[in-house]
Fold this sequence. Notes:
It contains twelve helices and no strands. By secondary structure, the chain is mainly alpha-helical. Helix 3 runs parallel beside helix 5 (156-169), helix 4 (139-152) packs antiparallel against helix 5 (156-169) and helix 6 packs parallel to helix 8 (218-237). 39% of the residues are buried.
Amino acid sequence: MLARIVGIILGLILTTSGYVISGLGTLGTWATGWDLGPFEPHRTTAGWAAMTLGGILLVAALLPRMGTSRRGTRRRKGSARGGERSLTKPFDMGGKDGGGPESDAAISAIAAPMTTVPAALPPVQAVPAPALAPVGATEFESLRAEMLALCGSEAWNPAARVLARLVRAAESDRERTIAYRDLGDFAAAQGRYDDAAEAYEEAVSYARMVRKAAPHDPSADELLAGALAGVGDTAEAEGRLNEALAAFEEALALRRSPGGREAADPGAQRALSVALERLADLREDRGHRMRALDLYRESYDVTARLAAADPALFGLDLVATRARLEEIEARVAG
């Protein structure tokens, strides 16, 4: 975000300066008395060069950033959330709701807590009936159940509305962590990485408060690890590899911290496996192949135990992990 702001400011300065220097017009007294020294005979050329460079900086700052890593070519396991459902999986950028005006409007609506100009949503027809929350559920739990059901039915616009209400309904730090993490999932799945990064950072800040209040609660570790995984994914997608590495390292340390709990919990085991592979992929991207190989071997051991216990549920995970392990082993051997 800071890089975008700097790019916009520099772009505006160069563009306006070039506009005046080239003689196309004036902007009050801006740049009218500038002496270009040895470039004075080439004032028009220098002005046009400044405008061109400024325009390039503005375009680069305003266009959505594209991921620079190779993770899009890999078959990844998905969310490192244990047994909890993530919003990322239903939003497939290659699917029918990967873009377009309706999905843009939906993201604008859920991003309203982070922006100043909320967008109006178009009417939606045939909204599926929301899932019923458990008896005695809080307003937050009911809204989240409704939102997940709408996502499962691919009703993105109403899901966005409910998600915005979910953020406002969150009362505790734990609920705020979950709400902002869901908000980050929703935005990241649409390629809105700046909005996603802000939401995940909010989730991390609330998760740290939860963990500070309950330092020996394994669920607090999992809550923070899930938010950090989102921070790492968006940082990696935007090419901020040092930030991604730090987030993945901390998430993995938290996954290992419950003192053996993951051994009896398949969801926690899978979350540990995913955290290992997130870090391994980034290590490989940075050329640390032996470290990546060690991490994938550890993940393979975990995934193999899961697949042996439940082939139907974890068999595909094992196939994906084995393929990546063999790929890295071949690169190390070659």
